[in-house]
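Sample pair:
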Amino acid sequence: MDIGHVHLKTADIDRIHHFYVEILGFDVVFRMPDALFLSAGGYHHHLGFNTWESKGGTPPPPGTTGLYHVAIRYPTRAALGDALRRLVAADWPLDGVNDHGTHEALYLRDPDENGLELAWDRPEDQWPRDAEGHLTFSGRQLDLQGLFKEGAETGV
Protein backbone atom coordinates (compact mmCIF):
# COMPACT_ATOMS: atom_id res chain seq x y z
CA MET A 1 0.00 0.00 0.00
CA ASP A 2 1.13 3.58 -0.60
CA ILE A 3 -0.35 7.09 -0.76
CA GLY A 4 -1.65 7.92 -4.23
CA HIS A 5 -2.35 11.63 -3.96
CA VAL A 6 -3.45 14.46 -1.70
CA HIS A 7 -6.42 16.61 -2.70
CA LEU A 8 -6.81 19.99 -0.99
CA LYS A 9 -9.38 22.74 -0.95
CA THR A 10 -8.12 26.13 -2.08
CA ALA A 11 -9.47 29.66 -2.10
CA ASP A 12 -7.79 30.61 -5.40
CA ILE A 13 -6.74 28.20 -8.18
CA ASP A 14 -4.54 30.78 -9.96
CA ARG A 15 -2.59 31.57 -6.79
CA ILE A 16 -2.06 27.85 -6.10
CA HIS A 17 -1.02 27.27 -9.73
CA HIS A 18 1.61 30.00 -9.48
CA PHE A 19 3.07 28.61 -6.24
CA TYR A 20 3.13 24.88 -7.01
CA VAL A 21 4.00 25.11 -10.73
CA GLU A 22 6.06 28.27 -11.13
CA ILE A 23 7.87 28.20 -7.78
CA LEU A 24 8.01 24.51 -6.74
CA GLY A 25 8.14 23.13 -10.30
CA PHE A 26 5.25 20.63 -10.40
CA ASP A 27 3.83 19.64 -13.80
CA VAL A 28 0.21 20.44 -14.70
CA VAL A 29 -1.67 17.26 -15.58
CA PHE A 30 -5.11 18.83 -15.97
CA ARG A 31 -6.53 22.28 -15.29
CA MET A 32 -10.15 23.38 -15.07
CA PRO A 33 -11.49 26.76 -13.92
CA ASP A 34 -12.21 25.31 -10.47
CA ALA A 35 -9.65 22.48 -10.16
CA LEU A 36 -5.97 21.76 -10.75
CA PHE A 37 -4.17 18.40 -10.85
CA LEU A 38 -0.37 18.30 -10.55
CA SER A 39 2.30 15.66 -10.89
CA ALA A 40 5.94 15.21 -10.05
CA GLY A 41 7.35 12.69 -12.46
CA GLY A 42 4.46 11.53 -14.60
CA TYR A 43 1.93 10.04 -12.14
CA HIS A 44 -1.70 10.89 -13.01
CA HIS A 45 -1.62 13.34 -10.11
CA HIS A 46 0.17 13.68 -6.79
CA LEU A 47 -1.65 16.85 -5.74
CA GLY A 48 -5.18 17.97 -6.51
CA PHE A 49 -6.72 21.32 -5.64
CA ASN A 50 -10.26 22.58 -6.03
CA THR A 51 -12.48 25.54 -5.15
CA TRP A 52 -15.72 23.51 -5.19
CA GLU A 53 -16.50 24.37 -1.55
CA SER A 54 -13.79 26.88 -0.74
CA LYS A 55 -13.50 29.64 -3.37
CA GLY A 56 -12.50 32.84 -1.57
CA GLY A 57 -12.39 30.96 1.74
CA THR A 58 -10.02 31.46 4.63
CA PRO A 59 -7.62 28.96 6.21
CA PRO A 60 -8.81 27.14 9.33
CA PRO A 61 -8.07 29.11 12.49
CA PRO A 62 -5.16 28.05 14.72
CA GLY A 63 -6.05 25.54 17.40
CA THR A 64 -8.34 23.46 15.17
CA THR A 65 -7.87 19.98 13.77
CA GLY A 66 -6.93 19.31 10.18
CA LEU A 67 -3.89 18.88 8.00
CA TYR A 68 -0.54 19.44 9.73
CA HIS A 69 1.59 19.24 6.60
CA VAL A 70 2.12 17.44 3.32
CA ALA A 71 5.65 16.12 2.81
CA ILE A 72 7.04 16.53 -0.70
CA ARG A 73 10.10 14.34 -1.18
CA TYR A 74 12.81 15.42 -3.63
CA PRO A 75 15.05 12.74 -5.19
CA THR A 76 18.38 14.37 -4.23
CA ARG A 77 19.84 16.98 -1.93
CA ALA A 78 20.63 19.10 -5.00
CA ALA A 79 16.97 19.00 -6.07
CA LEU A 80 15.89 20.15 -2.60
CA GLY A 81 18.56 22.85 -2.78
CA ASP A 82 17.12 23.99 -6.10
CA ALA A 83 13.66 24.22 -4.49
CA LEU A 84 15.22 26.34 -1.72
CA ARG A 85 16.84 28.56 -4.36
CA ARG A 86 13.49 29.09 -6.10
CA LEU A 87 11.74 29.86 -2.79
CA VAL A 88 14.40 32.45 -1.95
CA ALA A 89 14.09 33.96 -5.45
CA ALA A 90 10.32 34.24 -4.93
CA ASP A 91 10.90 35.76 -1.47
CA TRP A 92 8.79 32.93 0.02
CA PRO A 93 9.19 32.64 3.82
CA LEU A 94 10.24 29.46 5.59
CA ASP A 95 8.71 28.49 8.93
CA GLY A 96 11.69 26.34 9.87
CA VAL A 97 14.39 23.93 8.77
CA ASN A 98 15.73 20.70 10.27
CA ASP A 99 18.20 17.92 9.71
CA HIS A 100 16.37 14.92 11.15
CA GLY A 101 19.22 12.53 10.41
CA THR A 102 17.02 10.43 8.12
CA HIS A 103 16.21 13.45 5.98
CA GLU A 104 16.74 17.19 5.64
CA ALA A 105 13.61 19.33 5.60
CA LEU A 106 12.32 22.81 4.89
CA TYR A 107 9.01 23.82 6.47
CA LEU A 108 6.71 26.46 4.98
CA ARG A 109 3.10 27.28 4.19
CA ASP A 110 1.47 27.39 0.79
CA PRO A 111 -0.77 30.31 -0.27
CA ASP A 112 -3.74 28.73 1.56
CA GLU A 113 -1.66 28.27 4.75
CA ASN A 114 -1.38 24.49 4.29
CA GLY A 115 1.77 23.21 5.93
CA LEU A 116 4.45 21.79 3.64
CA GLU A 117 7.60 19.85 4.37
CA LEU A 118 10.02 19.84 1.44
CA ALA A 119 12.60 17.11 2.06
CA TRP A 120 15.10 14.65 0.65
CA ASP A 121 15.80 11.29 2.28
CA ARG A 122 19.32 10.14 2.98
CA PRO A 123 20.08 6.58 1.90
CA GLU A 124 18.70 4.19 4.52
CA ASP A 125 22.16 2.91 5.46
CA GLN A 126 22.97 6.46 6.67
CA TRP A 127 19.94 6.79 8.96
CA PRO A 128 20.85 7.25 12.64
CA ARG A 129 20.14 4.22 14.82
CA ASP A 130 20.59 3.36 18.48
CA ALA A 131 22.55 0.36 19.81
CA GLU A 132 19.56 -1.95 19.20
CA GLY A 133 19.16 -0.74 15.62
CA HIS A 134 16.05 1.38 16.23
CA LEU A 135 15.68 4.60 14.29
CA THR A 136 16.67 7.72 16.22
CA PHE A 137 15.71 11.06 14.76
CA SER A 138 18.12 13.87 15.37
CA GLY A 139 17.52 17.59 15.52
CA ARG A 140 20.81 18.64 14.00
CA GLN A 141 21.31 22.09 12.54
CA LEU A 142 20.55 22.05 8.82
CA ASP A 143 23.36 23.43 6.67
CA LEU A 144 21.06 25.85 4.83
CA GLN A 145 23.86 27.66 3.00
CA GLY A 146 25.35 24.37 1.82
CA LEU A 147 21.93 23.17 0.67
CA PHE A 148 21.33 26.40 -1.25
CA LYS A 149 24.80 26.25 -2.81
CA GLU A 150 24.37 22.62 -3.88
CA GLY A 151 21.06 23.45 -5.58
CA ALA A 152 22.50 26.50 -7.32
CA GLU A 153 25.62 24.66 -8.54
CA THR A 154 23.84 21.72 -10.09
CA GLY A 155 21.48 23.77 -12.23
CA VAL A 156 18.67 21.32 -11.47
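The chain is about 20% helix and 25% strand.
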